[in-house]
Amino acid sequence: MMMLPYPVVMIPQFLLFKELGWVDTFLPVILPTFLGSSYMIFLMRQFFTSLSNEIFDAAKIDGCSELGQWWKIALPLSGPVVASVAVFSFIHSWNDILGQVLYLNSSDKFTLAIGMTSMYASVTRLVPWNLVMVAAILAVIPILVLFSVAQRYFVESIVLTGVK
Questions:
Q1: What is the pLDDT of residues 104-129, one digit of tens each?
Q2: In terms of C-beta density within 10 A (0-12 exposed, 13-18 middle, 19 or more buried), how is residue 28 classed?
Q3: What is the DSSP secondary structure assignment for residue 25, as one 8-state letter?
C-alpha cells in the first residue's frame, strides 16, 4: 500500500464516499487519515516489534493473559508512537489540499489550505501577500500547538528504552 500513489486510489475512494453520502462533509477529509494509513501502521508495528520479549515473558510467568499483556505492558509503553502517529496524521490531513478540494464543494466548508491557494490562484489580479502570510501563520499555529503538547511523549520515548 505504501508504494501505491494517491491518484491510484483516489477515484475508487471518491466513489465509496459518494455512496456513503460523505461528499461535502468533513468526514472523508478527517477519517481516512485517522483510521490508519499504511505508513502509520508500519510505524506502530515497528515500535511493537522493538519491545523486549523479556517483559512479556515475565508477564506470562506471572499469569498475565495475552490481552492483559497488551493492556498492561504494551499500551502504556506505546505513548510515544501514538503521539507520533497523531502528529503525522494531523499534519497529513491538515495539509492535504487534494483531498479537501475533492470532497468539499461548498465555499462555507472550505479549509484554510483551500483559501490560501485560492488567494494566489487567479492570474488576473495581484496576489495579496500580506493576507497569504497571515493565513500561513494561522495554518502553522495548530501544528505547533500539537507538537508542543506531544513533545513530552517524544522525550519520554528516549528515556524509556526497554529492559536494562
A1: 998 899 988 888 888 777 666 788 88
A2: buried
A3: S
pTM for the whole thing?
0.79
Domains and CATH numbers, the chain: 7-159 (1.10.3720.10)
Q: What does the alpha-carbon distance between residue 13 and residue 103 come to, in Å, rounded to a whole number?
A: 10
Read off the C-alpha cell for 138: 494561522
How many whole angstroms from its chain centre is CA 59? 32
Angle in degrees, CA 59, 65, 68, rounded to 5: 80
Residues 6+ apart with CB under 8 A from 127: 119, 120
3-class state of residue 63 by DSSP: coil
